[in-house]
Design goal:
By secondary structure, the protein is of the alpha+beta class. It has 14 helices and 23 strands. 35% of the residues lie in helices and 26% in strands. The structure holds '5'-O-(N-(L-alanyl)-sulfamoyl)adenosine and zinc ion.
């Protein structure tokens, strides 16, 4: 067995290696930034998406599928949006031998595909709020270092929800709902996170404001795994999305969007993983329990039979179970399933059959203990629950240990030299000052803590310019 990269000290190498060894994706496809989903990785991603679909259903969003190509003429209607994306789009300029009259772009996100249709669909106040979503591939010509799941040029599981409302207040209510949806999803992934309101110079192109949700990766850099944007009427004006009010007037709608991607899986891998590989939260593990029979020569007991009966009982209780009957040594099987992050392993040998027992081994703590065969279902259930709780608690502690509130640039620099993570520091609120701080710290301003009440401070000086500080603001080195 090969020497594996350490999670804590060589995170980047650990991650790149695990993507392949755990059979998440194959990176050898000959287009940069475009990778192949392997069956195991895709099953995990589908389990994550299942929760997204459930949340969308619960909150009254309807699923749609738009085409991947957008005419240049549609793309060019909202000035800030074009400015933000034009350097990042892939173009389709020819069809067969013929140059196209109207060139097409591969969607980098679907505002400009959807909103001319919104102007046809939305007629009156009775059509509002209007809530749709899709999970599709989008294309971004990313110029920064590409990395599987994290920064790809074909985002193949891009979730985007788009809504339209009759008032700014209702759009604000939508943003609160988005945050609640995000919270419930993160709960399934056992993943604590922070939300920040982006500075004006870093909001989504075309947005009135943007929120970003981040996790802290093992190397102390942050990863943005979700964003929510309030567009006000910016796109409605550009795409002429009007509705008739109850009193017969014509008004532009207010709009929001909410986006996530396969980065969610990258976050799960990074936040919960360890030196042995993946550690999957039970809610999204394709296999929640793997059963490894441990045969002994000349024994009268049939360990395979016993293993299958355990699997049967667990399946009937709704668990995702696999019996590993491969003809290889048990140690090799343990290694494989640990690498793949299966939350719980059950080992059964002749002695366990004789005594009516089974051995449980937890992936998160690596603890092993013996249970009575009769209590199988309840013990498995309670152990999976305990694993979920422990993963969450562990991740929360890590996150809290990587958010540090300081008063001075000097202290902030020290944080980035040591264990890194997120620095919270007083700021006057001036753009020029914020940009200088980014430069000095060699870090990105994530934004101010959200909800904004949490960002308010009194009696502090801006860490850079010394003027009165208006808010606390977060900086981090980012992915
Ligand atoms: N229309 C809005 C929702 C939008 O596109 N927002 S966004 O640009 O911020 O993207 C939404 C989410 O997609 C991001 O929060 C990030 O998690 C993910 N994402 C963005 N670019 C990505 C890339 N190149 N590779 C993987 N995921 C990416
Ligand atoms: Zn300042």
């Amino acid at each position: 067995m090969v020497e594996r990269k350490r999670w804590s000290e060589e995170f980047s190498e650990w991650y790149n290696e695990l993507i392949e060894t755990a059979e998440i994706q194959d990176k050898r496809y000959p287009v940069k930034g475009m990778n192949i989903w392997l069956p195991y990785g895709l099953r995990i991603m589908r389990n994550i998406e299942r929760f997204i679909h459930e949340e969308m259903e619960r909150t009254g969003h309807k699923e749609v599928l738009f085409p991947a190509l957008i005419p240049e003429t549609e793309f060019q209607k909202e000035a800030e949006h074009i400015a933000g994306f034009e350097g990042e789009v892939f173009w389709v300029t020819h069809a067969g031998h013929d140059p196209l009259d109207v060139r097409l772009i591969m969607r980098p996100t679907s505002e400009t595909a959807m909103y001319s249709m919104f102007s046809l669909w939305i007629r009156s106040h009775a059509d509002l709020p209007f809530k749709i979503y899709q999970i599709v591939n989008v294309y971004r010509y990313e110029t920064k270092h590409t990395r599987p799941l994290i920064r790809v040029r074909e985002i193949s599981r891009f979730f985007e929800a788009h809504t339209a409302h009759d008032s700014f207040e209702d759009a604000e209510r939508q943003i609160r709902e988005d945050l609640e949806i995000f919270g419930r999803l993160m709960e399934k992934l056992a993943m604590p996170y922070i939300v920040s309101k982006r500075p004006d110079w870093d909001k989504f192109p075309g947005a009135f404001y943007s929120l970003g949700a981040e996790v802290v990766m093992p190397d102390g850099r942050t990863l943005q795994i979700g964003t929510m944007h309030n567009y006000k009427q910016n796109f409605a004006r550009a795409y002429n999305i009007e509705y008739e009010t109850e009193t017969g007037e014509h008004e532009y709608v207010h709009q929001t969007t909410y986006g996530m991607s396969e980065r969610l899986l990258a976050a799960v891998m990074a936040v919960h993983g360890d030196d042995r590989g993946l550690v999957l939260p039970p809610a999204i593990a394709p296999i929640q329990v793997v059963i490894v029979p441990i045969p002994k020569k000349d024994s009268v007991y049939d360990v395979y039979e016993y293993a299958r009966s355990i699997a049967e009982e667990l399946k009937n209780s709704g668990f995702r179970v696999h019996v590993d009957e491969r003809d290889i040594r048990p140690g090799r099987k343990f290694y494989d399933w640990e690498l793949k992050g299966v939350p719980l392993r059950i080992e059964v040998g002749p002695r366990d059959i004789k005594n009516g027992k089974a051995v449980l081994a937890r992936r998160d703590t690596l603890e092993k203990f013996v249970i009575d065969r009769e209590e199988l279902v309840s013990r498995v259930r309670e152990t999976l629950d305990a694993i979920h709780e422990n993963l969450y608690a562990r991740a929360k502690e890590f996150l809290e240990n990587h958010i540090k509130r300081v008063d001075t640039i000097k202290e902030a620099k020290k944080v980035f030299e040591d264990r890194r993570g997120v620095v919270e520091i007083p700021w006057c609120g001036e753009e020029s000052c914020g940009l200088e701080m980014e430069e000095i710290l060699d870090a990105k301003m994530l934004g101010i803590p959200y909800p904004e009440e949490e960002a308010k401070i009194e009696g502090k000086k801006c860490a850079h310019c010394g003027r009165e500080a208006r808010v606390i603001v977060r900086f981090a080195r980012t992915y």
